[in-house]
Amino acid sequence: MEKNQHEEKKMHTEKKKKEKEKEKSTTRHNSAQTALTKQALLNNRNVPAGKYFELSRLNNAENECCSADEQKPISLVLNPKEVILTRNVWAALKEKHQHLVGMEIFRQIFNRRPDLKSLFGVSALDTEMALNSTRLHRHTMIFQDVIDILMVNISNVDVNIADSLIDLGAQHWVLTKRGFDPAYWLIFGDVLFDLVENVTRKLPSRKRSTNAWRKTIAFMLDCMQIGYLKGVQCYAVEQ
């Protein structure tokens, strides 16, 4: 009887010892992961604000107490009228640009920053040839498809409309190897908002439409920042 009790006590002690060793190992791993994550973010902090938007989540990333997986995007709250206006503006944009809004967005981006064509390996091409290249055309359509998904589900609380945008942001981490800087998203936001302002210029509901789109674009940028931070953290784990 005493022998059995002694064996049980010994096994319990060994189990506790293994648990402590595992806990120490996990702590060391998490500390290393945090250090790598912060190092990877050094080049992306203090991103200046754009014309209309800012990347506050990236600027505060080093001070976040939770991982990107635990972060939630800002709420996109639109009333029924704003939902209708937002969708109508998107439909007007697609009609104006022959259902190639994504291509027009990148046309305007390259007009402002021609050097960004190098991210897609088309720096030697003029803008129109670059936009029709296989790689870039696919990228413009992905952006447009994501906004299409957002428009369809913008009033459906049962669908997590943030997922596609977060995934898109995570995919952009890979582009850092080719010189991508998340600050470029501010150019995207400014261009899209300028297109919205242009297409709503003569509408009686212009102010409400642009306000709704300002909230929508801010939501998009916030989701993509979360995705980008996920990419950073995955990189830290892999290292």
UniProtKB/TrEMBL annotation:
<dbReference type="Pfam" id="PF00042">
    <property type="entry name" value="Globin"/>
</dbReference>
<feature type="compositionally biased region" description="Basic and acidic residues">
    <location>
        <begin position="1"/>
        <end position="11"/>
    </location>
</feature>
<dbReference type="GO" id="GO:0005344">
    <property type="term" value="F:oxygen carrier activity"/>
</dbReference>
<keyword id="KW-0561">Oxygen transport</keyword>
<protein>
    <recommendedName>
        <fullName>Globin domain-containing protein</fullName>
    </recommendedName>
</protein>
<dbReference type="GO" id="GO:0019825">
    <property type="term" value="F:oxygen binding"/>
</dbReference>
<feature type="region of interest" description="Disordered">
    <location>
        <begin position="1"/>
        <end position="41"/>
    </location>
</feature>
<feature type="compositionally biased region" description="Polar residues">
    <location>
        <begin position="28"/>
        <end position="41"/>
    </location>
</feature>
<dbReference type="InterPro" id="IPR053341">
    <property type="entry name" value="Oxidative_stress_globin-like"/>
</dbReference>
<feature type="domain" description="Globin">
    <location>
        <begin position="77"/>
        <end position="229"/>
    </location>
</feature>
<dbReference type="InterPro" id="IPR009050">
    <property type="entry name" value="Globin-like_sf"/>
</dbReference>
<dbReference type="GO" id="GO:0020037">
    <property type="term" value="F:heme binding"/>
</dbReference>
<dbReference type="InterPro" id="IPR044399">
    <property type="entry name" value="Mb-like_M"/>
</dbReference>
<keyword id="KW-0813">Transport</keyword>
<keyword id="KW-0349">Heme</keyword>
<dbReference type="InterPro" id="IPR000971">
    <property type="entry name" value="Globin"/>
</dbReference>
<keyword id="KW-0479">Metal-binding</keyword>
<comment type="similarity">
    <text>Belongs to the globin family.</text>
</comment>
<dbReference type="InterPro" id="IPR012292">
    <property type="entry name" value="Globin/Proto"/>
</dbReference>
<keyword id="KW-0408">Iron</keyword>
